[in-house]
Amino acid sequence: MYLPSQPSKSSIRNLSYNNLTGSIPEAMSQLSSLTVLDLTGNQLSGSIPSELLKRAHDKSLDLRYDNNPDLCINGSCPPQNGKPKLVVYISVPVATVIVILVLVLFFLLRRKHKGSVHNTVNAHNEPTSQLHRSDSYGYDTRQLENRRFTYKDLQMITNNFQQVLGKGGFGYVYYGVLEEGTPVAIKLRSQSSNQGVKEFLGEAQILTRIHHKNLVCMIGYCKDGEYMALVYEYMSEGTLQEHITGGDHNRRNLTWRERLRIALESAQGLEYLHRGCSPPLIHRDVKSTNILLNTKLEAKIADFGLSKAFNHDSDTHISTNILAGTPGYIDPEYHATMMPTTKSDVYGFGVVLLELVTGKSPILRAPEPISLIHWVQQRLTCGNIESVVDVRMNGAYNINSIWKVAEIALKCTSQTSKQRPTMNDVVSQLQECLDLEHGCVGSDGEISIDHVGKGRELFKMDQLERVPLPTMSSGPSAR
User: Fold this and answer.
1) Protein kinase domain spans which residues (predicted)?
2) Is 114 annotated as a binding residue?
3) What residues act catalytically?
4) DSSP code of 27?
5) What is the pTM of this model?
6) pLDDT tens, 243-298?
């Protein structure tokens, strides 16, 4: 109800039928000259000031207030006053309970999250729609904070995108350094990339859930307007291909023991994707340029831009019209059916093993194009492993472990997926190869001459098949 700031000296106030709302101001009681106050026919509510009622009672004021259904007399408004009190009595305990429940839920979720990272959660008790860690694999227990960066942040981190590390299908890869001094590799999506916003955010969500010591860690991502990027840990020693094919003369030659360890670590990374994630993931582009090395020459699988979850029951992936992968590494069955499986990754890894043994590229160009698989098969017909082994190793290897790795590689690259081992089998067999190599290395690090050129296993060439070259083009992958 409106009250003038300067009270009028008039003794009569006729405010009837003015659609007034709210309560009667206490200040009305201060109008000592007021003799008549007519508030009839309004929408006033609350209590009538006690002073006005007192004056009306002693006949010094003619107070009229009919037809105000919500107006109370004698300061008593049971229906209206009771409700707020009831609301207070109910809402306070309810709010308290809600706060307690929220806090309990928060701590339970936090505890569950920590438990899953430290492999204390039973994988069978978690929803299959989420990615989680299984407690039978080797994990990197470091907790990397998945951060969201702005485009301005990326400009500062990369010094305005000064140093280019490479380029892939997603876009350019830049070197950067975080504020705390951590070096990173930033994959900035190019305008020509066919990956949409929805696919990008889905990929980033998957990557934030995957942590394994042999998978390149994603530190954060950027979705700032049209700019999209993924921020990874920086692998200073580059790709495996740079070390084994001799393309980068600044990289030193790897010993056979180092190659075996890299093979085992890479296999463990793929095994985790296939068996440690629920649902399992297919990498779809396993190759030596997607295996990165850090300063300790520890291997990590990179480039999950093509990784997809597949149906665990059917062990297949939804058919698409786009063939993913790189020539020389593509599974013939996938090439024919357009349906990749975990055995497609096994095939690509088999080619990587042959690269480690031979030091050659997956497709040889001279004197005419031939797959590395077929080239190795031809030369192993006579049972002479030295004819395919990388000469840069100078014969410093255990002949048995070399033969065993070659055999694993050719099984992995069998024409039919049923003849290929699982990555779990590959990990076990590579561990045996590494044990053989460790057994012939003395305390001084020298290879025992007794193990070089002796104990040769005969290879069953009747189990090998000629492998046709897939025909497709694909750009290089960048770390």
Assistant:
1) 159-434
2) no
3) 285
4) G
5) 0.63
6) 997 666 667 789 999 999 999 999 999 999 999 988 889 999 999 999 999 999 99
